[in-house]
Every structure is written in C-alpha cells, then in structure tokens.
Write a structure and sequence with these properties.
mainly alpha
Length: 66
C-alpha cells in the first residue's frame, strides 16, 4: 500500500516537472506556486505569503525579461 502510494506520488511529481520544463521556466514557476498553495494546508506547509515570495523569486531569476 505504501509502496503504491509512493510510486504514484513520485510518478505525478516527475510528470508535472517534465510538463513544466516542456512548457518553459515561467510556466514552471506558476506550477510550482500552485503546488505550494495546495500543499500549504498541513502543519508543515508554507504560508501563502511564503509561496508567493518563492514564486516572485522564481520569476525574477528564471524568466527572461520581455
């Protein structure tokens, strides 16, 4: 049971990462931000402010300026 769940989580993580890199770094930042918000529900989760700060940093460093 635990192995199956772990494999599923790892597969989904790899799929999202692969899709994000195929879409580009700016889209990756957005996907990473959305995932951060979804996982922020638990006691160890980040606050929405922390997720937003990481998103802004990602956009500043990884996205080319127009």
């Amino acid at each position: 049971m635990i192995k199956t769940t772990l494999k599923t989580v790892m597969f989904l993580g790899m799929a999202v990462t692969g899709l994000a890199f195929a879409a580009g770094t700016c889209e990756f930042c957005t996907l990473k931000y959305e995932q951060c918000l979804r996982t922020s529900q638990g006691p160890r989760g980040k606050t929405s402010e922390q997720c937003l700060a990481e998103y802004k940093l990602c956009r500043e460093t990884d996205c080319p300026s127009p």
